[in-house]
Amino acid sequence: MKAPHPQPGAASIQGALSGLRVIEMGQLIAGPFCGKTLGEFGADVIKIEPPADPARPGANGGDPLRNWRMLQDGTSVWWQVQSRNKRSIALDLRDAEGQDIARRLIAEADVLIENFRPGTLEGWGLGWETLHALNPRLVMLRISGYGQTGPYRDLPGFGAIGEAMGGLRHLTGEPGRVPVRTGISIGDTLAALHGTIGVLMALYHRAVHGGPGQVIDVALHEAVFNVMESLIPEYSAFGAVREAAGSALPGIAPSNAYRCADGYVLIAGNGDSIFRRLMDVIGRPELGSAPDLQSNAGRAARVDELDAAIGDWTLPRTIAEVLGKLGEARVPAGRVYTAKDIHEDPHYRARDMILRQTTRDGREIDVPGIVPKLSLTPGTVRSAAPHLGDDTDSVLAELGLASGDIAALREKGAVA
């Protein structure tokens, strides 16, 4: 077992969640992203991962995210972000002794995170009633496709399906064309963020009001639906079904992407005074002073005309020229950033949003920084993402198991 790989300067700050013990049973994105967030602010996150299955030669154990997308030294570089500040214990939850160890860990924990299909933990003897009786202070986050109740609860659900059912996929893409994804697993991440908020609220209730632990039930599609703005009120009041609008912001004008000589810029000129300044910059002051364009309702009615005027101005100019002139006029605008743009941007660097992290294999890699930024207890990267089972022995020793007991469990395959 390799020793944890601390990051430079990581021990100098006491995290806001220091002293909080979190058990993470989730895999891939939604549950682990919540664990990542809690860990960055000081929580001790113990990640339970399945050992390799001897019945499937060549199959990898652990969280499948370890093998997703681009690999370095046999491990996904995504893993280096998602699992930093976590400890890994390889534990077979299908095994009775593995389940017993899980119960012992949970008995001493503040938070349990899981994102299995409803009923999975109950099948392992780890349902809420059992765990609550064992640890009445436990806060349990359960993320699933459709929630723990309702007619769809037993259906398999991934983030992409949640995005579709939550209404997001219908609005992405160009009008009349196939719906597209946002380019990232936004449904999973939205569920994780809602789960994190729920955990913190439950911990506050426990600490301030003396309440017991409770369950936070997050459904992927509900997390997406919760950010869908006026979608349902507009349908309820007017029978309006909002449709895809490409890069435009329907009903809010002008706000769109505009072609330049060397790419695209996004311009948000939809504030009343901002609109007038924008029209001055593009040489159309008569539009800026038109009585019917002094409010958003009038501008929305003439959005095609406004977009055409702005597009005529941006088209022969470079992105740099457009952004320079709009910046001087205090009109919100920006280029469409690629990974390269982000990596080279001085503002990202100035705000510590690109961090240099050392993996447990000794490689250095640039990774995203930590959000949000707290003034007194900022988040930190205290240790690199673990190899599978890196911390099995130390975690079991903390439970009081002797080295001989651990060796026996390893021989039986209950731990690895």
In short:
The chain is an alpha/beta fold and about 425 residues long. The chain is built from 19 helices and 13 strands.
| Biggest sheet overview | 6 strands, parallel
Please name the CATH architecture of the largest domain.
3-Layer(aba) Sandwich
Mean pLDDT: 94
**CATH fold group of the largest domain:** Rossmann fold
Content-based structural category = alpha/beta
Low-confidence stretches: none
- How many angstroms does the end-to-end distance come to? 10 Å
Beta-strand percentage? 5-15%
- Tell me the number of structural domains: 2
Question: Helical percent range?
Answer: 25-40%
Radius of gyration: 25 Å
- Tell me the total number of β-strands: 13
Number of helices: 19
What does the overall shape look like?
Answer: elongated
Instruction: Write out the CATH superfamily name of the largest domain.
Output: Crotonobetainyl-coa:carnitine coa-transferase, domain 1
CATH class categorisation of the largest domain: Alpha Beta
Spatially, the strands of the biggest sheet line up as 5-2-1-6-7-8
Pfam families: CoA_transf_3
GO molecular function, one term: transferase activity
EC number: 2.8.3.-
Protein name: CoA transferase
